[in-house]
Amino acid sequence: MTVNKELTGKVALVAGATRGAGRAMAVELGRAGALVYVTGRTTRERVSEVGRTSETIEQTAELVTAAGGTGIAVPTDHLEPSQVKALTERIDREQGRLDILVNSVWGGDRLIQFDTKLWDLDLDSGLRMFRLGIDTHLITGHYALPLMIRRPGGLVVEMTDGTAAFNRTYRDSLCFDVTKNVPHRIAFGLAVELKEYGGTAVSLTPGFLRSEEMLDHFGVTEENWRDAVAQEPHFAVAESPALVARAVRALAADPDKERWSGQSLSSGQLAKEYDFTDTDGSRPDAFGYFEDVVFGGKEATAADYR
Asked: Model pTM?
């Protein structure tokens, strides 16, 4: 990546920036010079239902500023319309503009019940996933987009899990499957609605993400993550959150980004398109690996897809 501050003067909102891809995207936008509002429910004083105290929105904001941008932490529950309305009114009052909206709110991994029939799953958990992964995105867009459409060139990124093509394969949990397919349709619809304003909307997914939560799950760190491959061979194609963060930065800085509007994109796809790599210099293509090798039976290894 270049060290250009190509997003200087731009204002971004990364909704769901406490950890993982959300945090990385906020930091990378800051590295490009943007002013970034970072939101989430876990602060130094309060912990969300996710239950992790190790990451907070204040930390994320500090990382944004340290990277060269300006990070502003605003505690926000994106299921509460009044809080999201207050957030966007604050952005309007303080900046008068919004150029980039990244809808990365989730926090539902703990609710997923894989290999469980609809009639056997915990219904409350399934419906909670819809609230966390669908309602939050719609509520945030409802209040944030009137600020964005004041100027042409705005970018909306709907974060999800799996490309539209990859998600044609059932994700082994009905509520999770539905939740992670909806952002593709949100981006598709917003692309139509934003067109007359010169705005772009896409859905975006990382590959096999080495988030803080995933590293903890395998009992490894970012420094020794390859030790987890013995437990989970497919982890060999994993990527750091920086890859999808660099994808968002590249999209935001692209003057011709409208060509992507309405499409389902992945970090690996955009790494090839914009010629950037992960932190280790590799360019993981997780979806190519899963489609060709895991599902397609091709004779190859994860190393062939890095």
From this structure: 0.96
